[in-house]
Design brief:
This protein has 142 residues and is mainly α. It has one domain. Helices cover 84% and strands 0% of the residues.
């Protein structure tokens, strides 16, 4: 009979990429929500501008952690990394625009609670970003 530690290690090895994506996705969401909260609550910035800035910060953070830890991508050439970052950022800008649009429509126009709207939009974005990153951005060379 296999020990609990052995079975846990087997499960981790089998689902490593997904586990790390969820973990770092939570941290990326923390960067997004934390910077949004600080900008709106502490700095008095508007919701839409704060959302755009928080998305930009989250994109940079997410690229670094996804490249290094989640997908273990080892490409180092300047043009390879630049092309990869542009592809990554482009997808994240599209999903970020979706989030900004949700905040604009549901918070500023309809008056719904901003943090709830961000949470629902984040779930949709996290799922779509994982699929796109796995299949297109970090596929191939490792």
């Amino acid at each position: 009979m296999k020990s609990l530690a052995y079975r846990t290690r087997e499960l981790y090895n089998k689902y490593r990429e997904l586990i790390l994506y969820v973990f770092f996705g939570a941290l990326t969401t923390g960067v997004d929500f934390g910077s949004y909260w600080a900008l709106t609550r502490l700095c008095g910035a508007g919701e839409t501008v704060s959302q755009a800035i928080s998305v930009a910060l989250a994109i940079v953070f997410a690229y670094v952690v996804n490249k290094i830890w989640v997908f273990s991508d080892r490409r180092t050439g300047f043009w390879e990394v630049a092309k990869q970052f542009i592809s990554f950022a482009s997808m994240r800008i599209i999903s970020g625009a979706f989030q900004v649009g949700c905040v604009w429509l549901f918070v500023e126009r309809m008056g719904l609670y901003d943090m709830a709207v961000k949470l629902v939009a984040a779930v949709v974005v996290v799922l779509s970003n994982y699929v796109f990153s796995k299949l297109f951005i970090f596929a191939g060379k490792k």
